[in-house]
Design brief:
Blueprint lengths: L1 E5 L2 H15 L15 H17 L3 E2 L1 H4 L6 H4 L6 H21 L4 H14 L2 H12 L7 E7 L8 E6 L2 E8 L5 H17 L9 H8 L5 H24 L8 H4 L2 H4 L1 H15 L5 H12 L4 H5 L4 H16 L3 H30 L12 H10 L4 H12 L1 H13 L11 H11 L5 H10 L1 E2 L2 E2 L10 H9 L3 H7 L2 H19 L2 H4 L29 H4 L61 E7 L2 E7 L5 H12 L21 E3 L1 E3 L3 E4 L29 E4 L11 E4 L11 E6 L2 H12 L4 E10 L1
Parallel strand pairs: 1-3, 2-4, 3-5
Antiparallel strand pairs: 4-5, 6-7, 8-9, 8-16, 9-15, 10-16, 11-12, 12-14, 13-14, 13-15
């Protein structure tokens, strides 16, 4: 399966709009359409939903064939797609003027991407090995490849389909660059090859079903994820043949960290096949042998880091109590645990640095400003690895710390600064291994546990509370079976020692002795501080290794509290149950210094007259408190124009920078561009009984979920498409005030907000 480079202005617009509406990675990414969205633009959501009923997760191919949005309806050949196409056409027509101005900003990036993909992915280089690995036959099909500047993320890639078949793929060349872009494109081509309809006997999906049969949810899930991993490992291997420094997408983009047990098995055997050491049948046989040794649940369920923490704290306690067997076990496990945790944190630090793409750096040192700009050239997790190598681990982590603590403050960086600082101290051998591990478990970011991106952290707080209270019984309920056995063994030994009398029973049996030398010196793991240990180091003899990906159920550090029998492939009582979904624990960082008001009114004194407002502190207390604090100057704010602490009322002298007759007027930005804030963000307060069914409602603008700052807007008409997306915290009072709002909306130029007065009770 080959590809040919294509380009479509209409597809560019559609993917950019989809990204703006529902596919930006978060409030930290630049937005090109002002929020809140106009009703016409927001119709795109409904259009996509309508299409999905027919085409599934892909986009219809005629989207790329249309020269202009207005041409879409003439290309529809399936009446089921016509209602959605009408909505999409209306939305694209409304958004096109703004997005058409934004897309040329990435033209050079696109041109470079075209060259890079052609350099990496010559058909004679990848086609034969890709077909051989996937067990498919080259049908001679050619897919259209669209390298687009903006696409919804995740995954920033996707298919174009017609009549149920893939006819093209697209990839975001702004986010994926160089070898990472080639890896992403090759992964998409691999999936298209598997779904081509030609299914020979050696087809990968057929092989996996034949070798690991079963229709239970966990069995099906195991085969799907394994197929995904094998495609990604194959793509990464082929790209590394061209660029030896390439770090595969499966690693930096998360699959390896979400499913470490399954990825370890697949990579161990499949890489040997790709390197030519064994043939494909041998690799699949060895892989299936390892995967059928335990229940599919073992490989599909997410790791529980609270079990790792419980094991660590129990072994530390036993070691301190003089248990030499526990001390020896901790000594063997600790280097692997450090490498696993350091690698995990290194990856998420790179991810978090991508949150500061829109941070204002003009008031910070040039080196830091350049670092933030460079880290956001493409996917930050990929760029971070390169910058860390180029600048040195210590210096790169110092810059990361400064980025979090400086311009990143607005987007929650203050919680990540101590994390980067801690990893830096470990890399520079300033933290012993045990201290580093303890800080990994106890330090938290603004959403709780450091491991919540890839692991199930729902019980992490319970374990940390038990550790702080020395509640060993609670720790035991979270620990692995081996750690529990070590604990009970210590208790049995204590009872024997208490009953022993040396005069007639002789000396007690000697316990296993711990290795000599320092237990957990920083130097012992310095070489693996930022990369996972080699497979040989993790599991030299199969499943008996000491590292997380190579451990067997029930062993110390396996990341699970269940007894080994729970994962017996023939007796697992939950094997046929629905697949367990990981629940991310979300903590919303509300301020602890809330001022409570019974009633609040405000007056916006504008060039066109006064606007009287009634606020709702009972329904949105934090938002009202924030508005009052900014209006009166009682809350500390940062002036985006100078980077210094502001004085007086934040809103004094600002403009209504956005005015859309019949929709909204918007203000509260000292920059006057729609991109400014007061230097911090607060979460949303969406009241279930409030909506935008009536005009003249007062709400806070945002950049995405939980990113409210200083900007507010007033509606001029019912706007039900805004329901559930914005904090509605007040309304305009009286007809004269409503008339002033309408006059401002009709003004051809910005209208000054002179000051705000507030009355509270």
């Amino acid at each position: 399966m080959k590809f040919r480079q294509k380009r479509s202005t209409t597809l560019d617009l559609a993917l950019a709009l989809q990204r703006e509406l529902i596919g930006r990675a978060g409030s930290w990414e630049p937005n090109f359409l002002p929020r809140p969205f106009t009703p016409e633009t927001d119709l795109f959501r409904a259009g996509l939903t309508s299409w999905a009923r027919t085409v599934g997760s892909g986009l219809p191919a005629f989207l790329a064939a249309a020269r202009r949005p207005e041409d879409l309806l003439t290309l529809v050949d399936d009446d089921r797609l016509r209602p959605g196409t009408e909505l999409v056409t209306t939305a694209l027509t409304a958004a096109a003027p703004t997005l058409t101005d934004a897309l040329p900003l990435f033209e050079e990036v696109r041109k470079q991407a075209v060259v890079e993909v052609n350099d990496f992915l010559a058909p004679e280089r990848y086609l034969a090995p890709l077909c051989a690995a996937l067990g498919t036959v080259d049908t001679g099909r050619t897919l259209d490849l669209h390298l687009v500047p903006l696409a919804p993320y995740p995954p920033a890639t996707g298919f174009l389909t017609a009549a149920g078949k893939a006819t093209g793929v697209y990839a975001d060349c702004r986010r994926f660059r160089g070898s990472t872009l080639a890896d992403a494109v090759l992964t998409m081509l691999g999936w298209a090859q598997l779904k081509s309809g030609n299914i020979p006997e050696s087809h990968l999906s057929t092989e996996l079903v034949r070798r690991m049969p079963g229709g239970a949810p966990y069995q099906r899930r195991l085969r799907v994820i394994l197929t995904k991993i094998l495609v990604e490992v194959t793509a990464g291997h082929l790209v590394r043949a061209v660029d030896a420094a390439h770090r595969p997408c499966a690693d930096v983009l998360g699959t390896k960290w979400r499913y470490p047990r399954l990825h370890a098995v697949a990579e161990r055997h499949w890489s040997r096949y790709l390197d030519g050491d064994i043939d494909r049948d041998e690799a699949l046989t060895a892989m299936v042998r390892d995967l059928t040794a335990h229940s599919p649940r073992w490989f599909v369920d997410h790791v529980d880091p609270s079990s790792l923490a419980a094991d660590f704290y129990l072994l530390e306690w036993l070691t301190a109590a003089g248990d030499r067997t526990a001390a020896a076990r901790l000594f063997r496990w600790l280097p692997h645990l450090c490498a696993e945790l350091a690698g995990h944190l290194d990856n998420v630090i790179g991810n978090e640095l991508g949150h500061y793409e829109r941070a204002r750096t003009q008031h910070h040192p040039q080196e830091l400003a350049d670092f933030i700009t460079e880290i956001n050239q493409g996917d930050s997790r990929v760029t971070w690895q390169r910058l860390r190598r180029e600048r040195g681990h210590g210096r790169a982590l110092q810059l990361a710390t400064e980025a979090f603590a400086g311009p990143g403050i607005e987007f929650g960086g203050e919680a990540w600064a101590p994390v980067a600082a801690m990893v830096r101290r470990y890399v520079l051998h300033e933290l012993p291994d045990r201290v580093f591990v303890d800080q990994c478990f106890t330090l938290e970011h603004n959403n709780g546990s450091l491991f919540d991106k890839y692991h199930d952290t729902s019980t992490m707080r319970e374990v940390l509370d038990a550790q702080a209270a020395t509640d060993l019984d609670k720790l035991l309920t979270h620990a692995s079976a081996e750690a529990r056995e070590l604990w009970h063994g210590q208790h049995r030994q204590d009872r024997i020692s208490a009953e022993h009398h040396p005069l007639w029973l002789g000396p007690p049996s000697p316990a296993a002795t711990a290795p000599t030398g320092p237990t957990g010196s920083a130097a012992s793991t310095a070489s693996t501080a930022l990369t996972a240990p080699s497979e040989a180091a993790i599991a030299p003899s199969g499943w008996g290794g000491a590292g997380l990906p190579g451990n067997a159920p029930g062993t110390v550090g396996c990341g699970d509290r269940s007894d080994p029998s729970a994962y017996d492939p023939s007796r697992d009582p939950l094997r046929d149950s629905p697949v367990r979904v990981r629940h991310t624990v979300v903590r919303r960082p509300f301020s602890s210094s809330l001022r409570i008001y019974r009633a609040v009114t405000a007056v916006l004194h504008t060039e066109h007259g006064d606007i009287h407002l009634t606020l709702r502190p009972d329904e949105a207390p934090y938002t009202v408190d924030n508005f009052v604090g900014l209006a009166t100057g009682s809350r500390t704010w940062t002036d985006p124009l100078t980077g210094t602490t502001g004085e007086g009322g934040f809103y004094d002298g600002t403009d209504f920078h956005r005015r859309v007759p019949g929709f909204v007027v918007q203000g509260g930005d000292r920059l006057g561009t729609g991109h400014g804030s007061a230097g911090y963000r607060i979460p949303d307060e969406i009241h279930p009984e409030r909506d935008f069914a009536r005009p003249f409602q007062l709400a806070m603008a945002n950049l995405g979920r939980d990113s409210t700052g200083s900007q507010f807007f007033i509606t001029l008409a019912p706007a039900p498409h805004l329901d559930g997306h914005y904090t509605l915290f007040g309304e305009v009072t009286g007809t004269p005030s409503e008339n002033v709002v309408s006059e401002i909306a009709d003004s051809p130029t910005a209208v000054r907000l002179n000051r705000v007065t507030v009355a509270t009770a």
